[in-house]
Amino acid sequence: xxxxxxxxxxxxxxxxxxxxxxxxxxxxxxxxxxxxxxxxxxxxxxxxxxxxxxxxxxxxxxxxxxxxxxxxxxxxxxxxxxxxxxxxxxxxxxxxxxxxxxxxxxxxxxxxxxxxxxxxxxxxxxxxxxxxxxxxxxxxxxxxxxxxxxxxxxxxxxxxxxxxxxxxxxxxxxxxxxxxxxxxxxxxxxxxxxxxxxxxxxxxxxxxxxxxxxxxxxxxxxxxxxxxxxxxxxxxxxxxxxxxxxxxxxxxxxxxxxxxxxxxxxxxxxxxxxxxxxxxxxxxxxxxxxxxxxxxxxxxxxxxxxxxxxxxxxxxxxxxxxxxxxxxxxxxxxxxxxxxxxxxxxxxxxxxxxxxxxxxxxxxxxxxxxxxxxxxxxxxxxxxxxxx
Amino acid sequence: xxxxxxxxxxxxxxxxxxxxxxxxxxxxxxxxxxxxxxxxxxxxxxxxxxxxxxxxxxxxxxxxxxxxxxxxxxxxxxxxxxxxxxxxxxxxxxxxxxxxxxxxxxxxxxxxxxxxxxxxxxxxxxxxxxxxxxxxxxxxxxxxxxxxxxxxxxxxxxxxxxxxxxxxxxxxxxxxxxxxxxxxxxxxxxxxxxxxxxxxxxxxxxxxxxxxxxxxxxxxxxxxxxxxxxxxxxxxxxxxxxxxxxxxxxxxxxxxxxxxxxxxxxxxxxxxxxxxxxxxxxxxxxxxxxxxxxxxxxxxxxxxxxxxxxxxxxxxxxxxxxxxxxxxxxxxxxxxxxxxxxxxxxxxxxxxxxxxxxxxxxxxxxxxxxxxxxxxxxxxxxxxxxxxxxxxxxxxxxxxxxxxxxxxxxxxxxxxxxxxxxxxxxxxxxxxxxxxxxxxxxxxxxxxxxxxxxxxxxxxxxxxxxxxxxxxxxxxxxxxxxxxxxxxxxxxxxxxxxxxxxxxxxxxxxxxxxxxxxxxxxxxxxxxxxxxxxxxxxxxxxxxxxxxxxxxxxxxxxxxxxxxxxxxxxxxxxxxxxxxxxxxxxxxxxxxxxxxxxxx
Lengths: 388, 600
What we know:
The complex is a heterodimer of chains A (388) and B (600). By secondary structure, chain A is of the alpha/beta class. Chain A is globular, with a radius of gyration of 25 Å. Chain A has helices at residues 8-31, 45-58, 69-82, 97-102, 111-114, 120-126, 158-167, 183-192, 205-218, 232-241, 288-298, 301-311, 318-322, 326-335, 351-363, 368-385; strands spanning 37-41, 62-66, 89-93, 127-128, 131-132, 135-141, 143-147, 177-178, 247-250, 264-267, 273-280, 339-340. Chain A is built from 16 helices and twelve strands. Helices cover 47% and strands 13% of the residues of chain A. Mean pLDDT of chain A is 88; it is low at 1-12 and 19-32. In chain A, strands 1, 2, 3, 6, 11 and 12 form a six-stranded mixed β-sheet that branches. In chain A, strands 8-9-7-10 form a four-stranded mixed β-sheet. In chain A, strands 4-5 form a two-stranded antiparallel ribbon. In chain A, strand 4 and strand 5 form a beta hairpin. Chain B has 600 residues and is of the alpha+beta class. Chain B is built from 13 helices and 15 strands. The model of chain B is unreliable at 1-5 and 438-445 (pLDDT under 50). Chain B has a five-stranded antiparallel β-sheet. A five-stranded antiparallel β-sheet of chain B has the order 7-6-10-9-8, with helices on both faces. Chain B starts with a helix and ends with a strand. At the A-B interface, helix 2, strand 2, helix 3, helix 15 and helix 16 of A face loops of B.
């Protein structure tokens, strides 16, 4: 004889009872919840909001603290060296990794995470001398952005990019090529002349002078005069939106502010630098496993896809890349030919002096010779203080 | 069956429940909406006010720091033009302190980090050239005062680094700024640096002596501080009984962001006091409305269900057979109408019961009639023999013979018996013929006759009997259409009715009465109405429904057979007509109304 089937009302009573018991015990469970994962990051404004929203939606308790990118390397270094108030996970620029590894401040990447389907470019970012130290969170670098109706440069070479820009000059578009007066943007021109962003030899002699001369000559010719310091992103976004520029040398981090992405096309830039963002667990972390868990979550397919959809940046995992928006994949392809900056602790320190020297040349306050000599002296000083 | 008070009580509760729900649902919904709306509005206002406060405070704070930064940058650039002039350098540093009041100490360091001019600097201060031209550090405690170090690179015309300016900024102005702000009771404003350490707090002004010499950190302690340091913008967080509105100062300048945050915190009980009062008022008003609704519901439910209960009792009484009780509810409205309908229903039920009884009796009588007709047929011949021999024997006796009277009695009784038997046979014949006509009526042409001719013939037949009772006959025929009934059937009907009328007037000893027979078109022209009216005593209303039953008679015993009107009704209804009896004109006498359809 079959067992009697409980009525709907009785089943409903059982469900309600279970719900009441669960809700009554929920508080206890909540009280017993593990402490929040401490996360120090350098996300941009928009990335921070999406990160906070994502963590809230996924129910992950994170005590996040934002460090402005410009002070990130300094603040993170101070915290990790002090070792008293360490976060469980840190998001860093890839150029900061060599210094942290050299000082023994971060943990090696666990094997299961290292074995993930990272893109070769992402995996390379996280490695030093064949050892993985970080979870790659983003790949970026310089590429050429243009309106999809604008013809692509004949090739990725700097000469062809500049030539294409000149050809696109009109009365309403006096300066069709946009780039930033910054050491990072200067790298392709330096490399084009055979140099490299490496102290002290990379900036020496005619190589540096020719590179500075060529780079500075663009400003006022095909590139617009630089805006006030700190307003670069806003100014570049405005020029793009107003169709004042035809070719824009920039990175995927700026796609978020461009509005209609369907009109964006990208192409590679010869000698471009490639970098990215990494997630590292400090050696002084109180809960390193929690840190790796959060890194795992931040590079899950769902989260990577969400970030790629929102910002059109290239994901670091091949599976996420396959499902990413077209602009993300195009950016990834454009960046494949780019090369990382030298993986040395000194590399991020080189920009302060280079930026100022480039600004002086562009402003006409210094000749390329003077500026290059000054940078060389500064880099020699840095080398003396912190050997490369 | 007895009334069920529980049923009406249940109905009352249901009505009460329905009315209560009808009143409660809008009250609850509107109340909930009002509460939520009030809370949202209050939260929005609290948030807006707090944000306006911290935006203004943040703008002043950021503006002060940035102004100091720009001034020091300008000084550094000025110094870089002539770095080797000690007098100009000292003058520049003095002017810098004078122009920027929050600068407590200022120094120029050489490229090795050694103080070249000005005040001493903390030993662990990072003056490395990797800060994009300079930075504002985190807060430090200097003799009980919050201090932050501003580091600015001094570069030559060619962009080459030649020194570093370090300015110690006294943040007491932040505390003064907060203390000059009018805050609502319970509100506190806190400024924290990037580590969560308190730069200034409105609580310090309440107890300046207790102002912390060591800047306590709220990171990991106050969730709002964690939220503020983890965000790039402003927001609101309700946690731990506080409503916190925060703003990260990095939102003022993305590139050289000062890693601080400002928080405006207010106890939830104070922030949402207005909302709480609104909630309380809404609940009180809602409760009162609900109580009134319940009371009104009880009143109307009782008023509605009381007549229903009475009707239920009335229906039970009807079911128990008492149909003569007066209806309990009268008047307009649905319940009054329901009472009327129940009474109507009861009356129809009674009529139907009577009809069913009559039908049963009619069937029974029909059976009896058939049987009687058979018996009559069987005894008719012997009766004829008896009558014949009685008359023969009587004729054979001389007048005065003692047997002659007895034989006369036998003959008269036999004659009467033959009359009865004849009536029975007539009734039986009518029944059989009716069945045949009914079958024939399914055919295309039923029998028909001229009513005027039939009435004239009937008049001739009745004339002798009426003369004996000194009554007169009046025939009035205005109908000319043939009627759908056999002539002899209509003749028998009218003769029966006429004889009955004559007998009634004779028994009532009414002399000079008039028997009136009329035939005129019925309204609509599809039938002919024939009336037979006398001036006799009439038919009492209680007997009117039964006069057409077989063997029902009001005549004296031995006078009527009680079959005449039954035969009439049968013949008329078989022809598709109707017959009914009522009072004569002016309520005098009887009037039989025979309606016969016109022939097609």
